[in-house]
Amino acid sequence: MDRFSFLNAAHTEFFAQLYDQYLENPDSVEPSWRSFFQGFDFGMTTYNEENPVAQLANFASTNTDVSLVSDKLQKEFNVLKLIDGYRTRGHLFTKTNPVRERRTASPTLDITNFGLSAADLNTIFDAAKAINIQPCTLQEIVTHLDTIYCQHIGIEYMYIRKPEVVEWIQKKLGVNDNQPKFSAEEKKVILNKLNQAVSFENFLHTKYVGQKRFSLEGGESVIPALDALIERAAEKGVEQFVMGMAHRGRLNVLANIFGKSTQDIFSEFDGKDYDQEYFDGDVKYHLGLTADKVTRSGKKININLAPNPSHLETVGAVIEGITRAKQDKYFPEDFSKVLPIAVHGDAAIAGQGILYEIVQMAQLDGYKTGGTIHIVINNQVGFTTNYLDARSSTYCTDVAKVTLSPVLHVNADDAESVVHAMQFALDFRMQFGCDVFIDLLGYRKYGHNEGDEPRFTQPVLYKIIAKHKNPRDLYAEKLLSEGVITADLVKTLEKEYKDDLDHNLEASRKKDLTIITPFMQNEWDGYEQVSNDVMLEKVNTKVDKATLDSIINTVSSLPTDKKFINKITKIVTDRKTVYDNNTIDWGTAETLAYGSLLTEGYDIRISGQDVERGTFSHRHAVVKVEDSEEEVVLLDHIQNKKGNFRIFNSFLSEYGVLGFDYGYALANPNALTIWEAQFGDFSNGAQIMIDQYISCGEDKWNNQNGIVLLLPHGYEGQGAEHSSARMERYLQLCARHNMYVADCTTPANFFHLLRRQMKTNFRKPLVVFSPKSLLRDPRCVSTVDELANGEFQETIDDATVNKAEVKTLVFCTGKFYYDIVAERTNNGRNDVGVVRVEQLFPLPVDQLKAIIAQYPNADDYVWAQEEPKNMGAYSYMLMNFDLVKWRLASLKAYAAPAAGSYTRAKRRHADAIRMVFDKNLFR
To answer: Residue 706 and residue 764: Cα distance in Å, rounded?
Structure first.
């Protein structure tokens, strides 16, 4: 072994201080160090080296006279290695588990593992300066390190690559040796919040025996911690809080942090019906709440707990989007004013892949929120699964290392340490704008729910838990021993809180209905909830032609002082050409829609994979200067622009990004929020967001949302994964008034569809099956007048036929219309009319009825689609389109959406078209 390998543990800050002291007065340093520096100076002079401190830190590679290094000096370096050991591995030896022994880690922090012995314990070492204390004995150094790193708070941070961040953490840990230090009054506040947490659960356990509530018991200290976090954050200038959490402990948080009326909670436990027929509601431990509060110091704050489904960790993406929307809207220059708080379970944070996606968003321009405080309520078990079976990593929080975020592991029985850790986390977030994680090690008093038997799977653990005191009683004993409280204070607090609950229970049972307050209603003033009848009403989406003229002039003109590649120059200037020629293509119409909305004061946010250019190179909302890659956004320069245009290429995620954008739309109804899939079928990577939020959020939680999904769809021989956006799945989700589904065939109709999304006084999710080949199809164009003076057409009748001659009336949607018309032209079939259904949901039945009436001689009605029989809109139309008896023209049922062979796909497509014109081919 290299005799001087111990020098690899060197701390440059320690060397710098000691070397500066030596340079000022050589006699002031210990003799062995003086000899060391003398030899070092000799080596520096001989070899003309620069940066002496860096050279000291890399001493193992220098030619310093080794005889000058004494045993004492080598032990100084061994002490530095010991300090480094505590900093990097001290968290493995903490007292953070309240109910069982920790797993053993090797090697330990015993001094013998660092080249030291008991004989060195009384020796004074200068290395103590590396931990910001004066030279002292090894025993004192060890005690100091053990106090900081190995008590009820363990911290992981040495993987952080920014020295200034590491230094900040180390100085912060040195304050009071990383031990909580609260005044008597602060301790009483902690006790009071603990009492509320414990008493609330006890009350529910006795009044609603066996009912699911997903108790917080075993993790009650999160209540005083959240209380302290909000109070301290308000003092630091935070004005709004956005919180997401799963079901465990949610009711406790709602009651004791958000101030939700316990009368309402009791009504939910009693299973009463809701005060509205408009929505169906959700279970009590999924509901959200928004509240305006005044802190104890008089600060006004807005706090939000987002509603969530049972799908764990999904809400984490949503709250990041809500947070960013609030930051963009209210505090664009200071994101720290809005604080996202994500509360996790240990099994979920380790097991749910969306956590990785959310963490990867943390520092991306389009998704960052100035740092999230992540809190893990660590039960050490997931439903029935032991933690050893729940992850391969050491800790459930190891995903934090993706973004080099610090992690604090805390014993949940020690309420003061939990509050102390929360304050550390807040200070870190406010200082650096980065994520920070708190792993709150506790337990779960009952099974997964209150009716479950945990001893089936963890009999030993639950014997320990059955005998374990709750955090309130443990803390009360501590305060009694310190003389902070009297013996009857806890009884008084418990009685007062229980009396209040009893009163509210009695009042609740006098009410017949449950009232559900929509989440974040303050952001939705002026918007109404409507039925599908109102959704079918016409909306004025016209735009003054002069406005369009002005917009097209801007978006078709690149800066003359910058150089762009020839292709982009042509694409941009062609916008003016097609506008002047009344042959407006899809990309130009889309750009004009955005520009027109910006002039009317609406914000626009677009995100998704490759959206700045567009997967199919049609959008070019952001163009790059050829020699510098400077970004130019022409929509930012339109005249009379009143809204903000924001467009971001997302990272390669569907689930997390769509969740984020859903949250963004939830918090800002004045923003046209669009998520575009690279290909439509990739949206199934975000199926949970679609199923649990987008399709039913209003029905479950009474929340409107105007998110727009653009899903490229169309059969063009690109194989199974690039053809279908799975239209059938979205249509299966449609019911009552929950969303719009459209498949447009003209640029003008898409223009008006986007404008309609913002011009109504309500918001619904909009799913658009957007085109691919039609983006450049010369048949798929519109005129300026159709944009300026048109409106969204839910159906488009066939204006090219003599309706009296039509025998076969075909209904279809999307690109297939152009294929059918081309075949009709080729065959000279003037007896076939083709009607386009541009909006599939809500289905415009009255319009379809009126169109059918105009074809008096039609006796053959067809629903035609390019998708297989078991896909596309067929099953939906079968249920909802019964005005006439019709037949199907489509591919057979297949397992995959399309064939991989271009030849086979083309043949099948042609067969489906032939079936339109020959009813004898029906199968």
So the answer is: 5
Picking from 391, 309, 394, 315, the residue whose alpha carbon sits closest to that of residue 354 is 315
| 647 strand-pairing partners | 606
Quickly tell me which residue has 């003061």 as its tokens. 416
Find, among 56, 45, 49, 46, the residue nearest to 18 by Cα: 56
- Alpha carbon separation from 569 to 615, 626, 767 (Å, rounded): 19, 11, 32
Query: What is d(CA 364, CA 869) in angstroms, rounded to the nearest whole number?
Result: 42
Contact 144, 83 (CB under 8 A): no
pLDDT of residue 105 exceeding 60: yes
Please say if the pLDDT value at position 540 is more than 70: yes
The reported pLDDT for the residue numbered 610 is 97
Where do we find the tokens 């947070």?
323
CA–CA separation, 338 and 211 (whole Å): 36
SS3 66: helix
pLDDT for 63 beyond 50? no
Q: CA-based Rg of the chain, rounded to a whole angstrom?
A: 33
Q: Is the confidence at residue 10, as pLDDT, over 60? A: no
**pLDDT at residue 107 tops 90:** yes
Residue 389's pLDDT band, with cuts at 50, 70 and 90, is confident
State the Cα–Cα distance between residues 693 and 537, nearest whole angstrom. 25
Contact (CB, 8 A) for 449 and 204: no
pLDDT recorded at residue 47: 41
Is the Cβ–Cβ distance between 258 and 305 less than 8 Å?
yes
Q: Locate tokens 């969204």: which residue?
A: 792
Pick from 729, 685, 773: nearest CA to 873? 729
Residues ≥6 apart with Cβ < 8 Å to 68: 35, 36, 38, 39
Phi-psi category of 381—alpha, beta or left, where left has phi over 0 and alpha has psi -120 to 50? beta
Cβ pair 709, 675 in contact under 8 A: yes
**Whether the predicted pLDDT of 274 surpasses 90:** no
Average pLDDT on 653-676 reads 98
| Cβ neighbours of 557 (radius 10 Å) | 14
Identify the band that residue 44 occupies on the pLDDT scale cut at 50, 70 and 90: low
Burial class (CB in 10 A: 0-12, 13-18, 19+), 289: buried
Q: What is the rounded distance in angstroms from the CA atom of residue 274 to the CA atom of residue 268?
A: 9
**pLDDT tops 50 at residue 3:** no
- The string of DSSP letters for 793-818 reads -SEE---SS-GGG--EEEEE-TTHHH
Residue 238 CB-density burial (10 A; 0-12 exposed, 13-18 middle, 19+ buried): buried
Look up residue 694 and give its two tokens.
């987008």
- Mode of pairing for the β-strands spanning 273-274 and 513-514: parallel
Give the C-alpha separation, 72 to 74, whole Å. 5
Using a pLDDT cut of 70, give the percent of the chain over it.
Answer: 94
Q: In Å, how far are 38, 54, 66, 145, 447 from 16, measured between CA atoms?
A: 15, 9, 21, 22, 56
Look at residues 917, 909, 809, 914 and name the one whose alpha carbon lies nearest to residue 867. 909
Spell out the long-range contacts of 818-821 with Cβ–Cβ below 8 A and sequence spacing 24 or more: 818/745, 818/774, 818/777, 818/779, 818/780, 819/866, 819/909, 819/913, 820/864, 820/913, 820/916
Which residues fall within 8 angstroms of residue 491, CB to CB, at 6 or more apart? Answer: none
Centre a 10 Å sphere on the Cβ of residue 627 and count the other Cβ atoms it contains: 9
823-871: pLDDT as tens digits = 999 999 999 999 999 999 999 999 999 999 999 999 999 999 999 999 9
- CA–CA gap between residue 849 and residue 797 (Å, rounded): 12
Residue 419 pLDDT > 80: yes
Q: Where are the beta strands (DSSP E) in 412-559?
A: 436-441, 513-514
E-state strands within 387-426: 407-411
